[in-house]
């Protein structure tokens, strides 16, 4: 069952992270990948993961179409019901775990569990359904989790400037926005590098009193 896979992956990442905390030579980083339904989260995890990613996808049903709007993503036939999970070894002593969150509102109860111990987050955006980003942005802002916006460029979709997207999403000027192709390993790596650089810059900022 999908949820069994989710518990196994999240538990394995926690155990390895805990064991690595006791060894100064090894570190584990947990990153979240969020965004609306059909934004390309599963595709990005699959593109960048060095292992075969764990996926918890189920086929869309006729009854589900009344709950999940497919406007703009009519060709999508499956949906993530728990999470996507991938792993990237950045160097011998540093491993990154990537957790893709489910996009539909009825699965948002999973987010609190997935967010535990997360260093930062990527909000993957589809400009055809930009409003789908707001729940993820609100979630990370309320919990002070550093995040960036990655604009997944779909073929045939209208292009917008980064500043237009910033205004539309009412983002702080300090939040990075980057164009990406979720199918490309190199593009996905650039997204993750941008996030880590942003997390480090936030950590270096003085604490306001």
Provide a descriptive summary of the structure in words.
- With 209 residues, this protein is α/β, with parallel strands linked by helices.
- The chain has one domain: 3-Layer(aba) Sandwich (Rossmann fold), CATH 3.40.50.300.
- Helix content is 33%, strand content 25%.
- It has 6 helices and 7 strands; from the N terminus they run H-E-H-E-E-E-H-E-H-E-H-E-H.
- A 7-stranded mixed beta sheet has the order 2-3-4-1-5-6-7, with helices on both faces.
- Helix 4 links the parallel strand 5 and strand 6.
- The longest helix has 20 residues.
- The radius of gyration is 17 Å and the shape is globular.
- The termini are far apart.
- About 5% of the residues have low confidence.
Name of the level-1 CATH class: Alpha Beta
Name the helicity range: 25-40%
CATH topology: Rossmann fold
Structural class: alpha/beta
| Strand numbers in spatial order across the main sheet | 2-3-4-1-5-6-7
Number of domains: 1
How large, in whole angstroms, is the Cα Rg? 17 Å
- Major beta sheet, specifics? 7 strands, mixed
Secondary-structure element order, as H and E? HEHEEEHEHEHEH
Unreliable runs, pLDDT <50, ≥5 residues? Answer: 19-24, 70-74
The coarse silhouette is globular
Oligomeric category? single chain
Total helices: the number is 6
Strand % is 15-25%
